[in-house]
């Protein structure tokens, strides 16, 4: 049995993306960080063994979209409905993640997919440190498992876990991750993956926010980053 790896995301657009980073970021800086986080996430997805790799998008694709991904449109009103629709549209076993955890590695995503397919597991849930969740995997789509769960509140993850358990599903928990909501989160996440696009972009905005990765002996030093502001 195989699984689909699904990313649900907004197209990075100034004024619509990562608005809780403003201030201190400008809308254009927040959108640049959103694009970098999305690109890091999609790179990790493409490097993860999976039967399908799907982007479920709100908005229009841009030059940031790499080859090798199926593209589906989000449908539904609230985020709970959009998540439920994404699982329905993909069908079959699926692990769904967002674009707010650019530190997620292919190794973590592959292990999460394997956990979903382990006999005796019906669902997997990856808690976020803010009380939400960064990943949700279901063996079979079921709107009733998601609709009505309040989103972006302190106990979203706990409520989702309770809903899954109340439906009789056997739920495995994935490692917790910090997602990017505010600038303090951006700094912490960039420090976890200093070589990624997200960290490099943050350094153009806040040069001291995340240390650059040290080159190994014999490696070329990283290219200098030029600060750009909209």
Please describe the topology of this protein.
Layout: E1 4-10, H1 27-46, E2 52-58, E3 70-73, H2 79-90, E4 94-97, H3 106-117, E5 123-127, E6 133-138, H4 156-166, E7 171-173, H5 183-192, H6 197-205
Parallel strand pairs: 1-2, 1-4, 2-3, 5-7
Antiparallel strand pairs: 4-6, 5-6
Helix pairs in contact: 1-6, 5-6
Describe the model.
By secondary structure, this protein is an alpha/beta fold. The protein has a single domain (about 5-175), classed as Spore Coat Polysaccharide Biosynthesis Protein SpsA, Chain A. It has helices at about 25-45, 80-90, 105-115, 155-165, 185-190, 195-205, and strands spanning about 5-10, 50-60, 70-75, 95, 125, 135-140, 170-175. Strands 3-2-1-4-6-5-7 form a seven-stranded mixed sheet, sandwiched between helices. Strand 1, helix 1 and strand 2 (about 50-60) form a beta-alpha-beta unit.
């Amino acid at each position: 049995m195989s699984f689909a790896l699904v990313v649900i995301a907004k197209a990075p657009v100034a004024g619509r993306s990562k608005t809780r980073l403003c201030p201190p970021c400008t809308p254009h800086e927040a959108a640049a960080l959103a694009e970098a986080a999305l690109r890091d996430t999609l790179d990790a997805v493409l490097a993860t063994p999976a039967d399908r790799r799907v982007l479920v998008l709100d908005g229009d694709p841009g030059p940031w979209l790499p080859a090798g991904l199926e593209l589906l449109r989000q449908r539904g009103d609230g985020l709970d409905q959009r998540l439920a629709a994404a699982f329905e549209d993909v069908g079959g076993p699926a692990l769904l993640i967002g674009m707010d955890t650019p530190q997620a590695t292919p190794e973590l995503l592959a292990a999460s997919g394997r956990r979903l397919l382990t006999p005796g597991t019906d669902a997997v849930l990856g808690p976020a440190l803010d009380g939400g969740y960064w990943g949700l995997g279901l063996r079979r789509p079921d709107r009733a498992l998601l609709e009505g769960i309040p989103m972006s509140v302190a106990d979203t993850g706990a409520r989702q876990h309770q809903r899954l358990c109340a439906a009789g599903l056997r739920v495995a928990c994935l490692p917790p991750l910090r997602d990017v909501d505010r600038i303090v989160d951006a700094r912490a996440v960039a420090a976890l993956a200093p070589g990624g696009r997200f960290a490099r972009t943050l350094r153009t905005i806040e040069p001291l926010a995340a240390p650059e990765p040290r080159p190994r002996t014999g490696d070329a030093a990283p290219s200098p980053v030029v600060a750009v502001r909209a």
